[in-house]
Design brief:
By secondary structure, the chain is an alpha+beta fold. Strand 1 and strand 2 form a beta hairpin. Helix 1 packs parallel to helix 4 and helix 2 packs parallel to helix 3. The two termini are about 25 Å apart.
Length: about 270
């Protein structure tokens, strides 16, 4: 999968959706991001892009010192949301959409010219430009879905990206979220997601404070039994893990309480 192309495709779809929203007299609310309108969503993703672009451009290898809530924002931004605020009423400012488009284009170009193996700071154990490319392709897709939902019916996720995002949730997001939020201790429960539109499946075990992925156990070449298995299209599995669709969207086999107990470990951002 070409993640640079995927990133560019997703931000183009995001931009198309927010331009549709900008034609309305009021910024539509974003149902999947309570407390935000489309204006808040655009500001959020646009600032993320500028932070990541700066990390790659400067080859930052240490954590940033201090945080500037106005980072990357122009001095003149009448009608724009305030960072961290919301919901922001009024129409989506055209200048805000153009600012987003410029930043997305800049980050796409930066990804294209940067070796994924380049060492840079990230918030995860993996310290590479490739981490940011993978993360931002996924985040762009999730927020594209949010933006499309605010103006109509959102399109499904690209299947290859959805499969990668499921793995990335267990490889990166679940572990990080466990460190940041109170989370239940695992008792060795296994939790499997299985795609119904392909052969892929992912199994994780929650053991004490550890999130084991892929879960160990079972015979060679044979998947170990899981306490709970969630089945659905890869797109729906990804959207569930990102808090965008409910558990009822998936087929559940086994102990449903295991899925409900560990949902706190996935990132509804």
């Amino acid at each position: 999968m070409d993640l640079v192309a995927r990133f560019r495709d997703e931000v183009a779809l995001f931009e198309a959706a927010v331009r549709q929203a900008a034609a309305e007299p009021e910024a539509p609310p974003v149902p999947s991001c309570p407390g935000w309108t489309v204006s808040d969503l655009v500001l959020h993703l646009g600032q993320v892009h500028r932070v990541v672009e700066a990390v790659l451009r400067t080859r930052l290898t240490d954590p940033p010192q201090g945080t500037d809530p106005g980072f990357g924002l122009p001095a003149e931004r009448q009608g724009w949301p305030e960072p961290g605020g919301g919901p922001t009423a009024g129409p989506v400012p055209t200048a805000l959409v153009e600012w987003f488009a410029d930043g997305a284009r800049l980050l796409g170009d930066r990804f294209a010219e940067t070796d994924p193996a380049t060492r840079v700071w990230t918030w995860a154990p993996e310290q590479s430009a490739g981490f940011w490319l993978r993360m931002q392709a996924i985040e762009a897709a999730v927020h594209r879905w949010d933006a499309e939902l605010s103006v109509g019916e959102p399109g499904p996720m690209d299947r290859s990206l959805a499969c990668d995002a499921v793995a990335q949730t267990f490889e990166v997001m679940a572990r990080g979220r466990r460190e940041r939020l109170p989370a239940p201790e695992g008792a060795g429960e296994t939790y499997r997601l299985a795609a119904t539109d392909g052969p892929e499946s992912w199994t994780v075990r929650f053991s004490g404070a550890d999130v084991e992925y892929p879960a160990r156990g079972g015979k060679a070449g044979e998947a170990a039994a899981a306490d709970v298995e969630l089945r659905g299209y890869a797109s729906d599995l990804m959207l569930y893990l990102w808090g965008r669709v409910p558990l009822d969207r998936l087929a559940v086999a086994g102990d449903r309480s295991v899925a409900e107990r560990y949902f706190v470990l996935v990132p509804p951002v």
